[in-house]
From TrEMBL:
E.C. number: 3.1.3.25
SUPFAM superfamilies referenced in this protein's UniProt entry, alphabetically: Carbohydrate phosphatase (SSF56655)
Species for this entry: Pseudothermotoga lettingae (strain ATCC BAA-301 / DSM 14385 / NBRC 107922 / TMO)
Binding annotation for Mg(2+): E65, D79, I81, D82, D201
Catalytic reaction equation(s): a myo-inositol phosphate + H2O = myo-inositol + phosphate
Entry keywords, A to Z: Hydrolase, Magnesium, Metal-binding
Entry's family note: Belongs to the inositol monophosphatase superfamily.
Keyword Hydrolase: yes
A biological-process GO annotation: inositol metabolic process
Protein name stated in the entry: Inositol-1-monophosphatase
One term of GO molecular function: inositol monophosphate 1-phosphatase activity
Cofactor: Mg(2+)
InterPro entries reported for this sequence: IMPase (IPR033942), Inositol_monoP_metal-BS (IPR020583), Inositol_monophosphatase-like (IPR000760)
Length: 255
């Protein structure tokens, strides 16, 4: 079976399941803190994806957010609900993330938004798409014309917004890393900053954003890897300008 076709179909199937329980998830409980939630829907969504992978690709390893950490040269990375906080509160920013990796290189990535019924997908070397149409990053080369996204980080976000808010049109926080990165790929956002992100939070973006013409680095501008943890995804044209603001912020944080 074709891995891309498989990934799209299972992501959409899981999306239909999630929509049935959106805002009404059962057994919502905390993981590492009261701000890090998991529900029965997370568990069931992951189970649906994992079972299908094991049925069709039994020799592949699986790394999934809710407690499955296998290793192998051929591996699937899964986030059953990226944006669980939004999901359990009935907010419309969450996504299913599926990526396939060979020897630590992301070969394909899928991000499915069940609310808007938008499926973003890319295969390395073959471009990026949304619901069958080719997508590209924005052509904005000036910060003053840009809109960006960042997660909420107590030691970064407030200082970063203060440093950049008068240089950009606006900075948003969607609450879903996978959706924020997909929006960079299709030109809705010009850049997205992720700190302390796990590989399942960003894996599909490692192919979606570059195949749409964008760039991903760590927050120092160096080559990013799935385990880097800190990432800047952008349209490429604004990358150095955003990095410069990040450097200013880091200097203030260290003082």
């Amino acid at each position: 079976m074709d891995r891309m076709d498989f990934s799209i179909k299972i992501a959409r199937k899981v999306g239909l399941y999630l929509m049935e329980h959106w805002g009404n998830a059962e057994n919502v409980r905390q993981k590492s803190s009261f701000q890090d939630l998991v529900s029965d829907c997370d568990k069931q969504a992951q189970k649906m994806i994992v079972q299908k992978i094991k049925d069709h690709f039994p020799d592949d390893a699986i790394l999934a957010e809710e407690g499955l950490f296998e290793k192998g040269d051929r591996m699937w990375i899964i986030d059953p609900i990226d944006g669980t906080m939004n999901y359990v509160h009935g907010l419309p920013s969450f996504a299913i993330g599926i990526a396939y990796v060979e020897k630590e290189q992301v070969i394909l990535g899928v991000a499915h938004d069940p609310v808007l019924n938008e499926t973003y997908y890319a295969i390395k070397g073959q471009g990026a798409y949304k619901n069958g149409e080719r997508i590209n990053v924005s052509e904005n080369s000036l910060l003053k014309d840009s809109i960006g996204n960042t997660g909420f980080y107590t030691d970064f976000t407030g200082i970063f917004i203060s440093a950049i808010e008068k240089k950009v049109r606006r900075v948003r926080m969607t609450g879903s890393a996978i959706l924020a990165g997909a929006y960079v790929a299709c030109g809705r956002f010009d850049f997205f900053i992720a700190k302390r992100a796990n590989s399942w939070d960003v894996a599909p973006l490692f192919v979606l954003v570059p195949e749409a013409g964008g760039i991903v680095t760590d927050l120092s501008g160096n080559q990013a890897h799935l385990n880097t943890g800190n990432f800047l995804f952008s349209n490429g044209l604004l990358h150095d300008q955003v990095l410069e603001v990040i450097r200013e912020v880091n200097k203030k944080v260290r003082k």
